[in-house]
Structure formats: structure tokens, C-alpha cells
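Bench log, entry 3. Co-assembly request; chain sequences pasted below exactly as received.
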Amino acid sequence: MNIKHLKLNHLTNPLGYDVQNPTISYVVEDAAGKHQVSAKVQVSLKEDFSEVLYESGADEEIINTGFELPIALEPMSRYYWKVQVTDETGDSAVSDVQWFETAKTVSGNDCTWEAKWITPALDKQVQAAVWKDIEVSKPVVKARAYVVGLGLYELYVNGEKQGNECLLPGFCDYDSWIQYQTYELQFKAGKNRVEVLLGDGWYKGVYGMRTLVENYGDRLAALAEIHVWYEDGTEEIIGTDTEWNARKSQIVENGIYSGEVYDATVDTSETFGTELIDLGYERLNPRLSPAIIVHEKIQPIEVIHTPTGETVLDMGQNMVGWLQFHSKAPKGSKLFFQFGEILQDGNFYNENLRTAKAEFTYISDGVERDVCQHFTFYGYRFVKVTGWEGEVNPEDFRGLVIHSEMEELSELTTSNPLVNRLVLNAKWGMKGNFVDVPTDCPQRDERYGWTGDAQIFSGTACYFMDTVAFYTKYGRDLYSEQVKMNGSVPDVVPVANYPGDASTAWADAATIIPWNVYLHYGDKNILRRQYDSMKGWVDYMKRADDEDGAKRLWQTGTHYADWLALDGNVPGGVYGATDPNMIASAYYYYSTNILAKTAAILGKTEDAAFYGKVAAEIYNAFINEYYTPTGKLSVDTTTAYVVVLYTGLTPDFAYERVCRGLMNRLKKNFYHLDTGFVGTPWLCRMLSENGMNDIAYHLLMEEGYPGWLYEVLMGATTVWERWNSVEPDGKISGTEMNSLNHYSYGSIVEWMFRNMAGINPTEETAGFKKFRIVPMPDYRIENCDAKLRAASGLIESAWKIDGKQLKFKFTVPFDAEAEIVLPNASAEVIAGQAENIECRQDGENVVFLAEAGTYEFCYEPTTPYRKTYSINSTWEELQANPKTKAVLEKEYPLKKIPFEKELCTLEEMTWGPFTGYGMTREKRERIDKLLKEVE
Ligand code: BGC
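Structure output for the full assembly:
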């Protein structure tokens, strides 16, 4: 047995984090048995556990997905912990020792600071660093620094950057809270120079769609408190004050959008003073943000010499971060770099970044060195290089991929390389847009924490990576903005002066993100932390409803709704056709339901009953408003059907008509999607889960516009904002709002995990302790292999269509249990293939409960998993197979079919108006029979 993935609040050995509700989690691997029969957690202030501060008792229930340490923590203390697990066979293991260390407080800011906020005594535009020489004259036991710089900062001791983090202290609602960091310092004897290098960042620089400036403050500022504990038992505290000096920075200009100007010739030896600046202490809080670090270094795949004579590096991947290069440039020479996502006519292009300049200028002092940026980042694949002397060699460049630290949890591959690339593209979308805040895009003059985009993608994100710490921090920002808006949720978080709030499906990030996080990781802390936020948002909607006559519908407000859907009235417009008030009412119901369930989980019984009742009222009002008595949904769009199916607003009497409505909508659109931000994330899921799995696969496999693989075939390495961001001729479709790295439509990957591979968390026992595996293969893909290192442990679901056989392999983690559903199977056959399982026949499927272990099955399904044909096959499909083509040539010899009719089914083709050819019922049945016989 091994105990792995040990974390505290989903962080590995966190130093200086806010550890309110310190909760440990771990994963047991390679155990002899199936269940944890006992676990013991020990906490100590000593690494060797010679004194134990806490030991869990025999009656304490320790669940590996989250056990809150029932101890009162002290500030500025390091705690060591370990866990011992024993299974039913007596197999046992003790984990490696883990630790966490508290900041100046455990959480919040109930402490005094000796350090004072200072600002360089220079013009406010001048970029600078503040520093002090600290004399260490006796042996040191340990030293810590509690530091923050605004807008952005890096801490240096004796010229060396401390830690490996980028863009500290990250981006949060600085008006409400400021996260400081804790550093373990190594001082040498004698003089030590401590320096805080400052940059404008989100706080002070240009940031926001209206190119706002100084959103949170107009001066650079630093606060640093250094504690040194000496061997003689004394402690010394050195805080920032006006004794500290300032110097000019070589980073003479920097901005999130504009990039950076690095002038290596700037005289940094000239000393300036510092001044006090009163930013108060109330907002200070130990950090929550996971570290933003460099995760990968990519070498350009090509140096392109473009038709207009430019030199352009191709990174081979649309990525987010920095460009590092090795400079041997002579003194005074100026290197200039511009960043873009796509070439146009083979030339460098960046107009879709709008006002974001995304540049880097380096003025050389003649010293050979590696150069990189500090206080900006770029979303790019191509870099135009100007001013480089001699041959541009790819070896001299690296793209540094930066994003927030989150453990990667999964892999999903199939027999189809395009689908595999799509999964990768979605993951790259996540990397690039999880830089402290979940953003819409990482390149243009936006890079905002758009709540809608964040909500839509959160389900997929939870499969890809451990997002608990990341969303915990975002949740805090979201709530702190809500507090200022009487419960409403802004369109972007942090707000940074962006106006706009309370849009349906955007603001519901307040309920949906914590709920997804809970489902995936089973840790109730996120629900506890966000409860007031969730409630605040639902109360806001209810107030809006009450003011509008308490209809238990939400029929007011302005909503983005099915943003960027293709069925809108204005060609190329941004608003979809689905009635925004219908979507708003559905989300009102959906969020109220989540809140009621959350209240029940947290033991808030009164709230659970109250919001449960409100949800029931919304349900009834919705049914009355949007369905005819015979079950016809009054809004006839793909998204409308998907929304009522997903949110549970499809009453039994309407179910069949809703499903048929959805099918017909797609059929009328020649089986092409036309959905936007609301419909798309749920579209394939609702098709698969409501008897239309084949259409879900059909949409996935669509290689033309609009579809996911169209982008892949057009060379996308991330997911685009629009279905037609790039036209078939390679031309960008517009510059107004057109990002090539927008993760929203990457949410198809959630369908792949949940439906294609079938791995689903359950509400009853979250964190995949009890979960479901319901794989749904389709002939269009030969095999699928998914691995998810879930909170409970490693889950696997793999299938293969092998001739007439269906083969499956599943792994259920230690101390977990899965309900497995095998499609088109017989209980008798399945029971014979695995020991100790009790199979139940459920219609066409076989269902059984599986404990920890690996299971393999191979059987001939009751319905063939190969392509079949009928009169309902499309003309295109029937032409593609020589055997069906031969049937048609003989039985229904049409000469030329208009191109746009090729996606019609044969049945539709036989309707006179299309083709002029009618067909008798007998003939129809005969052709159908012949087609069905084709193997
Ligand atoms: C963003 C979107 C966002 C939308 C809302 C856009 O500019 O990039 O992804 O959700 O605005 O209107």
C-alpha cells in the first residue's frame, strides 16, 4: 500500500496560505484490500513527531477526500502531519510527512504589522524597486518574510529571486482584500540586500475593456516584514519604512496588455528615498491563490521568413506566458518582439488583440544573458522579431508556459487523432486561461474573469485538473464583489471597474462553480465558504422576481443568454434566438435547486426547506408559462430543448415531445449545431442522456463548419471563441471579438468524460467515493480510454469496438464504489465474466455495483456497434458506402443532388418538393429494408 497525493486544502505543503478549515486529503494506491478499515492522522510541531499535537481517535471517521483537522492553529507556525491507513486484509502504510505553515495569522488579519506601506519617492509613472540592506551578525535559526507589492512584485535577496512564482500577488478584488506571501529566507552572515521589484499590473496599469487605468491604486507600493529568529533565542523584525531606499527599475514600462520595455542600460545604482503610503492593514489576508509558475518551456518549431520580409517565430502551439531568449546583442541595440495568434497570408498578424499591444522591447547593455518578461503575459503562437542581429536561431528562444499550479488529473484518448487533438486544445485553453483568475481569453484587451465563461467550463476544468484551491480564491473574489452589489454578481470578477452584472448563466457562476467543485472533490469547504454568495445570488433573482409580481419566473433584466449562438436574427450577431427570459427562468430554477441541496448538505434545514419550496414554485410557474397542456415547448430552439432537459424542467407529460423537438431542430439544421454559450456545453450531454447518443457523436465528428473538428482541421491548437473564428480560406472572420483561445466551447470535454467514457460523480456521495460509470460507445469511434485521478483515487474507463465485440475495462479506486452500466448487454453473460458482482438487467443494459478493483468484459452487444443504414440515413452517408450507393443506383436513380441537400436523409429526399421525385410507401419500405441489410 502507498499513500499519495497528500494535500492540505488541496495544496501540497502550503507555506503562508489562509488555512481556515485546514482539511487534509490523500489517495491510497496499491492496497491489498478494498476498503479502509481505519486511518490515523497525526499532527506535530516537530518533524520527527517526538511530540504529538493531535492524533485522531478510533471513532473519528476519516475520509480520504477531506478530513478537517480539529485543531486550533497558531500563526507563524509549521505543522507536520502524516496519515496511516489500514485495510481489511491488514495491509497498512504510513504516508510521508507533510507540512503546512501559517502566515502572520491563520486566516484574516487579526494581527499587528510592524512594517509600513511604502512607495518609491519618484514620479508615480516611474517603475522602481525598494530595497534595504539587512545586517546579520549572529547565527540564524530561521527567517521569514511576509510580503506584498502592488500592483505586481518580485522579491529578491542578494540579487536572487525568491521562489519560482510569476505575477505575484496575482489578481484579486484588491479593494476588498490583498493577499500577502510568506517566504522562507536564507541569509548569509553580514550584509544582505532585500529588494522588492515593483510593476503596475492589474492594480495600477492599463487594464479593462475600456482601457481603464489605475483601477485600484495610483502608486506602486510595498509592504515587507522580515522576522529573523537567532540561535541565542532573540527575534528581530525588520519592516518596510522610510529607511528603505528606492531605485529605478530596468523594466521601464510594463502593462498587462501592452507588454514590457526592458532597458538594461538604466542606472540602477542611483538611490532614491521612499515615502509612507496609507493603504491600511485591514485588507491584508494570507494568500489563497495557488502559485502561478512556469510549467513548460517550448522551443519554436520554425523560424518563418514571411512574404513581407518579417522574421517570425512559430511556437507550434497557441500558448500563454512569456518569451525567453538568449541575448548577445551589442550595447544600445534594441530588440523588438510582437505577439500574435495567427498568420494572415503568411504574414504576422495581431489585429484581433484590439488595443492590447502585446509587445516586448529589450535595450541591451551588451551583457550576454537570458532575457524574459516579469510583469505582463502574452497569449500567442507567433512572435515577430525585429532588430535581431544575425541569424535567428530557434535554439535561442523558449516560450515559457505559465499558469496557476493545479495538479493534472486526467487523460482521455480515442482512436481518432482529431478528437484527441480537440481534447488537448481544450486543455491548452484551460492552461492559458487559468492565470490566477479564470479568464475569457488571454491575449486581447480583455483577459477578464468573465463569470459565464468560467461557469460553463468549470465542469470540464474539474476533470482536467485539481481546481479546488483555484476556485476557492475566485469564489472569495466573487463574493467580495457581491457584497458591494447587494447580492448581484458582476459580469466579470474581479470587477476592475467593468460595469454590468446579473446576467443569467453568467451570474450563476456563484452557485454552479462551488457545486461542481463539491461534486468532483467531495470537500464541503467550498460550499461552506461560498454559501452566503450562493444564497446572495438566489435571493437577488428572487427579489427581481418579487418586484415583478412574484411570478416565480425571472422575466426582467438584460442577459447575454445564448451568447454567440448561430440561430440569432442578425447575421453574425452575438445574441442567439432563444428567449433570454426563458433561459433566465430556467437558471433561476437551477440555481435555487443547487442552493436548496447545498443547504441540506450543510445541515441548514430551514434554508433547505425554504429554497426547496421556491424551486418547486419556479418549476410549476415554468411549466405553466412555457409548455402547452399537451407538452409542446413554446420556445423552439436547440438551446431551449437542451436547457429544459438539463435543468430538470421537462415534466413527464412533455418529455417525448421535448426530445422529438430537439431532434427535429437539429434535423432542420441538417444535423448541425447552432448553439451558443448556454446550449453548447449541455448539448451533447443531453443528446446522449436522452436516447440520441448517435447524434451527439455525429455533432462531435462534424468536420465542417460549425463544429469542433472544423477548428482542429483548420490547425487550431486551442479552442476558438466563435464557431467561425477563422474562415475556411484561413482568413480571420473579424477583429471585433475574436479570440483563438477561448475555453467555453472546450466544455465538450465534459461530455467526453461523462458520456463517451461514462465517468460521473454523484450528488449523494461526492468526490467519486460512490460514482457511476456509464460508457456510451458509438461506431464512429473505435476505442476510448479515459483515466481520471479523482479525489477518491484512480478511475479508469476504456472501451473498444472490436468487430462484433464490445470490450470494456474499468478501474474503481480503493475504498470507493461504482455503479457500472454496460450498454446492450445481457446480465447472464456479464455475470459469467466477473467474480463477486451481482448483475441486474435494466432494459437493454446491465447494471452492477463494483468495489475497488479492475474489471474487464467482452461481449457481443444486443444491438450492433457498427454503422447501420436505413431510409433515415443522409444522402451523403449513403453515397459514401459503395454497397448503399449501389442500392440507391438501382432503386432510386437520382442524377444530381443540390449540394445543400446532401445532408438530408433519404426519407426527406423522397418528399416531392425537394427533388421532384416522390416515392410509394411500398418502395420506401423496400429500400429501407435493403439498406438495413447492408453490413
Ligand atoms: C467575452 C466573452 C464574454 C462575453 C459576454 C466577451 O467579450 O470575451 O467570453 O462572456 O463578452 O458578453
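The pocket of beta-D-glucopyranose is lined by residues 440-441, 446, 450, 452-453, 560, 563, 737, 742 (CB under 6 Å). The CA atoms of residues 110 and 282 lie 9 Å apart.
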